[in-house]
Every structure is written in structure tokens, then in C-alpha cells.
Amino acid sequence: MSRLLVDTNIIIDLLSQRAPFYNAASKLFSLADRGRVTLMVSSLSFANTYYILSQQLTDVKTRQILRNLKSLTTILDLNSKIIELSLNSDFRDFEDALQYFSATEFKADIIITRNQKDFKSSSLPVMNAEEFLANLN
């Protein structure tokens, strides 16, 4: 079973039903619901997602949505090693570095993101949700 690090933008695509990306994100999370993939999410993504959704929804609704998300994902802790690696990396975007080193530290097979260009130096395969789904077939 593939272990996928899901970037924040994919989560927002799903939870905000952001067109035209929602369908692929929905299918990806459906695979997790059926036990066909393991979706891993940085704890940073939970914080960022809460912030974004809370701008549109009530606190109660936002927390319920995140509880549902938590049931479909494995949450990866940020730790001192990941932060140290990120601070000393060549990544231009610190958040992307945190995502990348979370993926490598917790042994993800693939990073799923729409910002593939930000992960050019990745030792892991980097795909968007559509590409991953196409490779399953």
C-alpha cells in the first residue's frame, strides 16, 4: 500500500471543493477511506487548514471537518530534526521544506501536491493527485 504525503493544497482542494481540483482530491481521499492508500499529513497542514477554513466557516464547523480529515489520515509530528533539516535546506519555501522532510523522515513513498516545481530536488517522486490516480490504472 502506498504511503502518500499529502500537501496542504490538496487538502484545501478537497475541503473547499476547489474546482477543478476537487474531483481528483476526492478520489484520493476515497482510496484512503477504502484502505487502498495511507495518507500522511503534516501537523503543520492541520494548522494551516484550520486557519484557511475558519475564514469561511464557524469554529465548530471547521473543527468537525478537521475531525473527519483526521479519521482518514495519519498525522505526522513536526520535530526538532525536521525543523533543523528544513532550516538548513536549499528549499526556497520553508513550509515546502517542512513537508518534504516530514515525508522523508516518516518514509512516504510519494509526495502529492499541486506545487511540484517547489519540490524539484526531492529524492521522492512528486505528483499531483491526477497523475497519481492515472498511475493506479
Descriptive report:
The protein is α/β, with parallel strands linked by helices. The protein has one domain: 5'-nuclease (Rossmann fold), CATH 3.40.50.1010. The chain has helices at 8-15, 22-33, 43-54, 59-72, 80-87, 94-105, 129-136, and strands at 2-6, 37-42, 73-76, 110-112, 126-127. The chain has a 5-stranded parallel beta sheet. The protein starts with a strand and ends with a helix.
What key phrases describe this protein's structure?
137 residues, alpha/beta, Rossmann fold, five-stranded parallel beta sheet, 15% strand
Can you describe this structure in just a few lines?
This protein is α/β, with parallel strands linked by helices. It has helices at 8-15, 22-33, 43-54, 59-72, 80-87, 94-105, 129-136, and strands spanning 2-6, 37-42, 73-76, 110-112, 126-127.
Reconstruct the topology from this structure.
Blueprint: E1 2-6, H1 8-15, H2 22-33, E2 37-42, H3 43-54, H4 59-72, E3 73-76, H5 80-87, H6 94-105, E4 110-112, E5 126-127, H7 129-136
Parallel strand pairs: 1-2, 1-4, 2-3, 4-5
Briefly, what CATH class?
Answer: Alpha Beta
Q: Give me the CATH architecture, please.
A: 3-Layer(aba) Sandwich
Q: Would you list the SSEs in sequence order as H and E?
A: EHHEHHEHHEEH
Widest beta sheet: strand line-up: 3-2-1-4-5
Main sheet? 5 strands, parallel
CATH topology description? Rossmann fold
Number of beta strands? 5
What's the average pLDDT? 96
Alpha-beta content class: alpha/beta
Number of self-contained structural domains: 1
Count of helix runs: 7
Find the CATH superfamily: 5'-nuclease
